[in-house]
From TrEMBL:
InterPro entries per record: HARBI1-like, HARBI1_dom
Biased composition (Acidic residues): 146-162
Compartment(s) where it occurs, according to its Swiss-Prot or TrEMBL record: Nucleus
Cofactors, names only: a divalent metal cation
Organism: Rhynchospora pubera
Any one Gene Ontology cellular component term annotated for this protein: nucleus
Similarity section: Belongs to the HARBI1 family.
Protein name (database record): Nuclease
Length: 204
C-alpha cells in the first residue's frame, strides 16, 4: 500500500503484503504502525476502502473510471452530482496510477523478483520508491527516458466491499459509524459544491 502526493512522490509505503490482501486490512496495519492523516486533510482512496472523513472514496455503483467518461458526449457527460464527483475524484487519484506506472517503468526489476528472498524483495521496493522520489525532486540530475506506456491514465477496477473488514483501525463499531457518517457528510458537501458550481457556469 502506498500514499502518493500530487507531485507523484511516495509519502508512505507498506511493502510485503500478498496481492490477495484486502485493502482495509492493509490500511488497518498501516494505521497501527503509526501512519496518520493531518488534521483537516484527507486521502483520496479507491472504492476498495470505506468512505470516512480521512479516506474519501468514490460513490459506489456510479460511473467512475476516466475511460467511461471519455465515451460520453461532452454535453451530456454527467447525469447527477455523484457522477461529477466520481469523475473529479478519479482525475485527481489518477496520479496514483501514473506514479506506479513510472515506478515500474524505471525499475523493471519490480516485475520479477522471485530470485530474491522475501525480506530483500521488500527492501528493493522501498529503495526504488526512495530513488523515484529523488528523481522527481531533482529531475535534471539524471537522464530518465521512460516508455510511453509508463504514463498510464487508467484507474484500477477495484469495486469490492468486504463487510468483515469494513472498519479502519482498531475502533469500536459505534466509532466506525460516526466516522463513516462524517465521511458521507463531507463527500456530499463536496458533491453539492461541484454540482452547484457546474450548474451556475451553465446558466451564466
Amino acid at each position: 500500500m502506498a500514499a502518493i502526493d500530487f507531485d507523484g512522490r511516495f509519502v508512505a509505503v507498506l511493502a510485503g503484503w500478498e496481492g490477495s490482501g484486502h485493502d482495509n486490512l492493509i490500511l488497518r496495519k498501516v494505521l497501527e504502525k503509526g501512519f496518520t492523516v493531518p488534521e483537516g486533510r484527507y486521502y483520496l482512496v479507491d472504492s476498495g476502502y470505506p468512505n470516512t472523513h480521512q479516506f474519501l472514496s468514490p460513490y459506489r455503483g456510479i460511473t467512475y473510471h476516466l475511460a467511461q467518461f471519455r465515451q460520453r458526449r461532452m454535453e451530456n457527460r454527467y447525469e447527477n452530482g455523484e457522477e461529477l464527483f466520481n469523475h473529479r475524484h478519479d482525475q485527481l487519484r489518477n496520479v496514483v496510477e501514473k506514479a506506479f506506472g513510472i515506478l515500474k517503468g524505471r525499475f523493471r526489476l519490480l516485475k520479477d523478483m522471485h530470485q530474491y528472498k522475501y525480506d530483500f524483495q521488500t527492501n528493493i521496493v522501498l529503495a526504488c520508491c526512495v530513488i523515484h522520489n529523488f528523481l522527481i525532486r531533482h529531475p535534471n540530475s539524471h537522464g530518465d527516458n521512460l516508455p510511453e506506456e509508463a504514463y498510464s491514465d487508467e484507474s484500477d477496477d477495484s469495486d469490492t466491499d468486504d463487510p468483515s473488514t469494513s472498519g479502519v483501525g482498531p475502533m469500536a463499531a459505534s466509532s466506525r459509524r460516526t466516522d463513516a457518517q462524517r465521511g458521507s457528510e463531507m463527500r456530499d458537501k463536496i458533491r453539492d459544491l461541484l454540482w452547484n458550481s457546474r450548474c451556475g457556469d451553465a446558466e451564466s
